[in-house]
Structures are given as C-alpha cells and as structure tokens.
Specification:
636 residues; alpha/beta; Rossmann fold; GMP Synthetase, Chain A, domain 3; eight-stranded mixed beta sheet; seven-stranded mixed beta sheet; 19 helices; 30 strands; 31% helix; binds adenosine-5'-monophosphate-propyl ester
Length: 636
C-alpha cells in the first residue's frame, strides 16, 4: 500500500527516510502498484543534461493501476461522479467497472482510427466525462495525450497541434458554461484551417447537439465508440515512455510542451493524493480545476483513480446559477475533500456571505487551494465560512513541471499558517539560493526556490526541444531545478511562496508569459511596441497591464483598446485579455535597449514611491509621461 502518513512523528520520520535513502523510499511506494515487469534500477539522474529516469526497465500501464486493479475490490464503487452545468439536469456516475468498459471501448475506437503507441492525440473539450475517458483511453494504448484548455483560441490550439504533430483532435460540438453555449468544434475547424497537416481525424463528441459544420476528417464519437468491445488489452509501457504533454507558458517564446512519463508520475500522483487530501474509502473528493490544466490531470484523473477514490468532475462555473453553486454541490454530494483556486475563493467572497451561509458543509474534512498565493483575507474567509474552522486548509504549491504537489500542509498532521504552503512533501529537497546561486541557510530567510534532488514526477523534457528544458529549468543554478518562484522560509521552516521572479504572470491561477501577450498585441497594425506586466488585482491575484506605443495619435482610444483586447483573445484566448491598456509615447529603456520592467511594474501597481535611479536610462523623460497617463491611482 502507498504509505499514508498519520501523525506528525510519522511525517518527520517518513521525510527523513525519504531524504536519507530516496531510492529505497520510492521503491517501497512503487511496490504497491501493478507492474508487468518490475524495474531493474530505481533512479538514474543528472540535472546538467538533464537526464532523469525513474524505475528503469519497469513495464506497466497506468490504466491497469487506475482501473483494472480496482475491479475486484471496488468494481461497483463510483469512480467518476459528474455534476452538470445545469443544476436541474441529472448528475451521472461511472463505477470503476463502467469506467473500465468505457475506456476500453474508446481505446478500441482510437485504434480503429489508426492511433497507436506514441501517437499524439489532442483534446479540446469541456469538462464532460468523455474527456477523462478519452485521456485514459490514450494511456491504455500508449498514445500520448495533449489536452488543450478549451478556453484557448484557434490559433493557440493550432500552435499546440503543430508543435506535437498530433494525429487526431477530440472535441465536443458545444460547451455549456453558465448561461452560455460555447461553440467548441468551430474553434477546432478554425485551428485546422491554419495548416495542421498532421491531423487525420477529428472525433466529435455530441454534447449539446447544436448545429456544426461537418468536414471530411470529422467522425462522431458515438458512432466510433459505442459498438466497440469493452475489453482492450493494456499496452505495455516502459516507466519512461511518455504519458502526456501539457503546454505551459514561460518567460520567453511560445508555450512549451512539458513532458511527463508513465512510471514516476503514477507513483508520485497517487502518493501525494492520498497524503495531501488524507483520502479514505467512501470519501467523495472534488477538485474544481479543469482537466486542461495540470491540476486536473494529476488530481481529478490520475491521482484519485490510482488511489481508488470517488472523484467528482464539474462541468459548470462557480457562479451559475448563483455564487452558492460550489457549496450547493458540496452538500448535494456530501463532498469530503474540496480543492479549488484562490481566484474562485476571492470571487465568491466578494459576492457576500449569504451564498455560503445557507449551506451545511459539514461533510468537508479537508479544503485545498492551488495555483497562486492565497492572501490572508481569502484564507480566513475560506477557513471560517467554508471550513467552519474545523477543516484544515491545504495550501498546495506545485507546477505543471513538478507533476504533483511538492509543498503543502498535511491536514490534521502538520500545522497550518495563513499564506504558507508550509512543508515539503517526503522526497522533496528544497533549497533557497540568492541570485548568484549561494545557498541561503537557516530560517527566517528569503530567496529563490530550487530543488536539489529529483522526485518521481519531475518533468523529463520539453517536447521536441530538450535544450529549452535544460536552459529554462536546469541552467540558472548548477545541479538544481529552478522553479522560477521566490519564497520565504519562516522561523519554523515553513515555506511561503512569494510569486514568480521571472516574466511570467499568474492571472486567476493561469500562467501567462508577458512576451506571449506582447507578441499578440504587436500584431495590431497600429502598434509599434508594447510591454506587459502584472499588477495586483483584487479578484484575479494579478491582472494584465499593457503599455502600448501606437504608430500615430489614436483618435478613438476606447475603440483602439477594444481592438487590442479582441486581438489578444483571438491570438491566445480571452483569459489573456489585458485588464488595463495605457497608451504611451515610449517605454523606459536601458542604454542597451532593454525595457525597464521594474519601473513599469511599479507604475502599474500604483506605488511609485521607490522608482530607484532613473538617470541612467536611455530616455528618463519617458518615466514622467508613463506616470502621467497611469490607469491606476499613484501613491508616492
Ligand atoms: O508561481 C507558482 C504558482 O503557480 C505556478 C505554477 O503554475 P502552473 O504550472 O500553471 O501550475 C499551477 C497549478 C499547480 C508556480 O510557479 N503557484 C502554484 N501553487 C501556488 C502558487 N503560488 C503560491 N501558492 C501556491 N499554493
């Protein structure tokens, strides 16, 4: 059995064991899974290349561990509980037996359509059960899934399809989202019109039954899947074969495809799920994330199913039909573990207590937070109003690249402190360093967050560009994985994540590269140059502030701003739309022509008290102009 930590002493001992002999520790965790062939060696690694291999020589299939392994012991237990967007529609359940059969049918349909081991399949789907089923069907036959969040634009989707040379796209016709009906298939059609020659089939799941255009590559999900056999042998996978690619933004260039492999990801997501949420048999667990992000991969699909849990999938949004929906659903399904993002908490908090106060919520045992720093006010509200003061909050820190939760309190085991992600999970060896790479020892200190030893679900590469992986994560500091985050270690050794130290911003828990947004803005014919920074936003955590230099005087500013926002939505997706657009005559630059983002960040945040020495700028006079046109009230 995967070890489930029970006491503080147990945590301390387990942590020590995991550090003193990581290979023995992880081998012990891995023993509890079904391996077609056991590994020959636990770990080989070199962070310089990087080259990281776990459970070398091991053969397995993650779906045998998510599904087949549970059939005898919990075949009739609900595996996936699906709650629809519309509260008046019935929810659906899939038992482990039913899910196994559906995954096998779908896997057979993929095979019948020419998909085999190593082929890439792109998903562009809302939160319907078929998304989880499709992902598992890929894993069943060794195909690599690349799920693209269904809020991205056609052009962003096309980029991802091309980068991974996907052979198939799986989508739905439309998506229910609150009161809206969003045309999903249309976005896929538009993406495919942007030259995606690798796509051979578009498999369309009928979700709403709305009108869609029908093209030569299109096939209906139900026509391909429903008649298939409910048995499909699991492909034998090497521990280090790719399980999936997931695109995420960085500080430069286009989003990169983070690669996770089968064996280590399986061991770590199950171990972390069981420990962080303290899941016990018959509990109902709900993570509100979208499967388009890593949180959905690791903690809606793989982690919970590996652990034999009942995992809920929610199609809707937190504010439909009103801001009490999350809590209504918690009561309805007697949810025991609830996992969401600070943005959602802040948005619901802003709607007023009346939406939460009328619900009982007494089944909740653990409530979690992920994706961005949770501020004290939101933490307090979550604790008092949702947890009623007796469900520990697990503020979980991790990244797409880490595959699983690395820093978190363990509920009821370690203490919690507002705004602190707290303690490292077993096997996680954290280090704080200064900009020169010197290790910062002791407590009560701040630095750049690094990890000095691999854990089983660390990324292996960035798809098709290993050098980029080396440069971004392993070259800043020798022999360390650099997270891109700054952190503080308090007197007792708890970690507080301060935020990104690179040009990545975190908007509503969604990672965005400032360069990506700038490139989109610069596509506007009237734009000469732009600079994008993050600024504190009450609900979103960070908002997007864009400084734009136009070619000529803009006569109709509101119309221009709308064009810029629409353009960004078209190139990336609505989530990347700037909140503030300031038209400027120039951007403050160093003598070598580098934009002084520090100054732009200060102005955007409204605090210009310490702008520092600007006399060395190429164009110091521009700072006054930037301040004069600021879209926020300035102090200092
Ligand atoms: O800055 C950190 C922030 O989100 C980044 C990772 O984003 P992404 O890969 O999209 O994964 C999000 C979900 C795992 C991190 O570098 N972040 C994530 N969790 C926290 C956080 N910041 C503060 N506190 C957290 N709990």
């Amino acid at each position: 059995m995967t070890h489930q930590i029970k006491t503080l002493q147990d945590y301390k001992e387990t942590y020590q064991k995991s550090i003193q002999n990581p290979e023995a520790f992880w081998a012990e965790q891995a023993e509890s899974f079904q391996w077609q062939k056991k590994w020959d060696k636990v770990l080989e690694w070199d962070f310089r290349n990087p080259n990281i291999n776990w459970f070398i020589g091991g053969k397995m299939n993650i779906t045998e561990n998510c599904l087949d392994r549970h059939l005898e012991t919990r075949g009739d237990q609900t595996a996936i509980l699906w709650e629809p967007n519309d509260p008046n529609q019935p929810h659906k359940t899939y038992s482990y037996k039913e899910l196994h059969a559906e995954v096998c049918r779908t896997a057979n349909a993929l095979k019948a359509n020419g998909i085999g081991k190593g082929d890439r399949v792109c998903f562009y789907m809302p939160m319907v059960p078929e998304l989880a089923i499709g992902v598992l069907a890929c894993a069943r036959i060794g195909a690599i899934h690349s799920v693209v969040f269904a809020g991205f634009s056609a052009s962003a989707l096309a980029d991802r399809i091309k980068d991974a040379t996907c052979k198939m796209v799986i989508c739905s016709d439309y998506n229910h989202r609150g009161a809206k009906n969003i045309p999903v298939k249309k976005v896929v059609d538009d993406a495919l019109s942007m030259d995606c020659p690798s796509i051979e089939t578009v498999l369309v799941h009928k979700n709403t039954g709305g009108d869609i255009a029908w093209n030569s590559l299109d096939k209906w999900w139900h026509e391909e899947v429903d008649h298939q056999s409910p048995d499909c042998p699991a492909e034998q996978m090497d521990s280090e074969d790719i399980l999936f690619i997931l695109y995420t933004s960085g500080s430069t260039g286009k989003p990169k495809g983070v690669v996770h492999t089968c064996g280590g990801y399986m061991v770590y997501t199950c171990f972390s799920f069981k420990n962080v949420f303290q899941y016990h048999d018959n509990d109902v667990y709900w993570c509100t994330a979208d499967i388009g992000w890593i949180t959905g991969h690791s903690y809606i699909v793989y982690g919970p199913l590996l652990a034999g849990a009942t995992t809920m999938m929610f199609e809707g949004v937190p504010t439909y039909p009103d801001a009490g929906r999350f809590w209504e659903v918690c009561d309805k399904h007697k949810v025991n573990q609830f996992y969401t993002a600070p943005t959602a908490i802040r948005a619901l908090m802003a709607k007023g207590d009346k939406y939460v106060d009328k619900y009982d919520l007494s089944t909740l045992k653990v409530i979690g937070s992920v994706g961005e720093p949770i501020n004290q006010e939101a933490w307090d509200w979550y604790n008092e109003k949702v947890g009623k003061g007796n469900s520990p909050i697990v503020d979980t820190w991790w990244q797409t690249e880490t595959g699983g939760i690395l820093i978190t309190p363990l509920p009821g085991i370690t203490d919690t402190k507002p705004c602190y992600a707290s303690y490292p999970m077993p096997g996680i060896q954290l280090e704080l360093v200064d900009t020169a790479g010197n290790i910062i020892e002791g407590n009560g200190v701040e630095g750049l967050l690094c990890i000095k030893y691999p854990w089983p679900s660390i990324l292996r590469t960035t798809y098709g560009d290993h050098e980029r992986c080396r440069q971004v994560y392993f070259s800043t500091f020798e022999d360390k994985y650099f997270t891109g985050d700054g952190a503080r270690r308090d007197e007792e050794g708890r970690y507080r994540i301060i935020g990104r130290v690179d040009d990545v911003i975190n908007v509503s828990g969604h990672r965005m590269g400032t360069a990506e947004v700038e490139n989109a803005i610069n596509e506007h014919p009237a734009v000469v140059e732009s600079a994008v920074v993050g600024y504190p936003h009450e609900i979103k955590g960070q908002g997007i502030y864009a400084y734009v230099i136009p070619q000529d005087t803009i006569k109709d500013e509101p119309a221009f701003e709308k064009e810029v926002r629409d353009l960004v939505a078209k190139v990336i997706g609505p989530i990347a739309k700037p909140d503030q657009i300031q038209i400027v005559p120039g951007l403050p630059k160093t003598r070598s022509g580098k934009i002084m983002r520090r100054i732009l960040r200060k102005v955007a945040s409204g605090d210009v008290s310490q702008l520092g020495d600007i006399s060395t700028l190429l164009n110091p006079e521009i700072v006054e102009a930037v301040k004069a046109g600021a879209k926020v009230k300035l102090v200092g």
